Amino acid sequence: MRKISHQKHNKETFYFSMSRMLERVSFYGLRALIVLYMTGEILRMDSNESTGIYSWFIGSILISQVVGALLGDLLIGNKKAIYIGGVIQAIGALSLCIPSIIGLYLGLFLIVVGGGLYTPNIISNFGKSYLNKPKLLDAGFTLFYLVVNFGSMLGLALIPLVVGQWGYQIGFALTGILMLLSLVPIRYTNKYDVKDFQRSISPIGRRILNIVIALLAVGLFWGTFEISNIRIYQIQIHLSEIPTLNITNLWWQTINSMSVTVFALIAIVLWTYVYNCQLFKLAIGFILGSIAFAILLLIPEVPTQQHAIIYLISLLLLSASEIHIAPIIHSILTKYSNPKYLATFISLAFLPTKLFAILFGMFNHKFVDQSILGLKIGMGVMIGIGFGLIVYLIYTRRINSSEE
User: Transmembrane region positions (predicted)?
Assistant: First the structure.
């Protein structure tokens, strides 16, 4: 652990964060409306058809991000890709105002294309703004993660309220306007020349290995949540039904969101002034997660009021775990990959997470009646990865010492 000196965040951090937050308000607000809009009075789709379209919509975004990243890295530049993607996404949102099937498909298609250009390229340029001050990468991406979460929650809360008051057309129009507004702060950011960046001094084999380890670790982290969340949600439901506690299911979710925010703010401040390597942070995150799962195993099948504090402690530990893992993957990619292809690496980082989530999700039905088993498996995976990372760090430090 080393003190950070002569490095600080700049105005570009604010501009990128503001842009991303407004885009997330737009996207998540729109996403909250899609299925309701398709099954509502205008289009009158059945639930199976609407769910299928929604699934294709979400799945297509992952593919479009890879294409958009390649275009940004190799052809049009990352900053132009952000502008073009934002405009296309805004046109897509406005197309949804057309009350027809054509408007629906056109709007969803344009949102997928625009989001594919916008997302990996803004993350890439945000990372590049820190390449000459790499010790602040963790703090910077944690701030970025925080504004993404805040924008998502704001979109889910705000846009449906607007629709309830003024209808779907106004709601979709608002998401399009917010998307256009998200491009204004990008005007004040720089266009980056990769020749100006400090390169990592680590051997290329070590850099590739660090990236692969981080991708697999983060993917497994979210994968374990797929099977462990069943038990977590069951406990939450039981506790919300205890009248003497007077804590609803919504309140538990709010507490979880608030704890993520608090730990993110603490991490941002701490990691702005004190540096430790990213893989060590990942190891700490997995160890905290395994402790949280172990605590959850202390709660019986049907929890009582006395178990609420145990559940709360586990939520706090899981939030701390999330902050040590989720933002760090982009920090690692930015530090160890070639800046010229950073958006492409970032777009590919979404794939292991999605694949592990799908893979673990395939077994969810087996853990509905055996939810504690899912929790145990999740704890085992967390412990294995956490201590595996520590062993790898010890090994690499010995190698570095022998080379010196």
Answer: 21-40, 52-75, 82-102, 108-127, 139-162, 168-188, 208-230, 250-275, 282-302, 308-329, 341-363, 375-395
Q: What CA–CA distance (Å, rounded) separates 21 from 9?
A: 18
CB 128, CB 197: distance < 8 Å: yes
Q: Where are the alpha helices (DSSP H) in 7-77?
A: 11-39, 47-71
Distance CA 171, CA 25 (A): 12
pLDDT in tens, the chain (404 residues): 677 767 788 899 999 999 999 999 999 999 999 989 999 888 888 888 888 999 899 889 989 999 999 999 999 999 999 999 999 999 999 999 999 999 999 999 999 999 999 999 999 999 999 988 889 999 999 999 999 999 999 999 999 999 999 999 999 999 999 999 999 999 999 877 666 665 566 678 888 899 999 999 988 898 888 788 888 888 888 888 888 788 877 788 888 889 999 999 999 999 999 988 899 999 999 999 999 999 999 998 888 888 899 999 999 999 999 999 999 999 999 999 989 999 999 999 888 877 887 777 776 666 666 778 888 888 999 999 999 999 999 988 877 655 44
Q: Which two tokens stand for residue 127?
A: 């990372």
* CATH class name, domain 204-403: mainly alpha
Domain spans of the chain, in order of start = 9-191, 204-403
Instruction: Give the distance, in angstroms, between the CA of residue 245 and the centroid of all CA atoms in the same chain.
Output: 32
How much of the chain is in helix, strand and coil states, percent to nearest 5? Answer: 80, 0, 15
Round to whole Å and give the CA distance between 180 and 171: 15
User: 72-98 burial string, b = 16+ CB within 10 Å, else e?
Assistant: bbeeebbbebbbbbbbbbbbbbbbbbe
Q: Which residues contact 273 (CB under 8 A, 6 or more apart)?
A: 3, 4
| Residues β-bridged to residue 275 | 2
CA distances 133 to 51, 130, 206, 275, 331, Å, are 45, 5, 21, 12, 12
Per CATH, the homologous superfamily of domain 9-191 is: MFS general substrate transporter like domains (1.20.1250.20)
Range 315-319 contact pairs with CB under 8 angstroms and sequence separation of 24 or more: 315/252, 315/255, 315/256, 315/259, 316/259, 316/263, 317/288, 317/289, 317/291, 317/292, 318/256, 318/288, 318/289, 318/292, 319/256, 319/259, 319/260, 319/262, 319/263
The two three-digit tokens of residue 302, written as one number:
């049907």
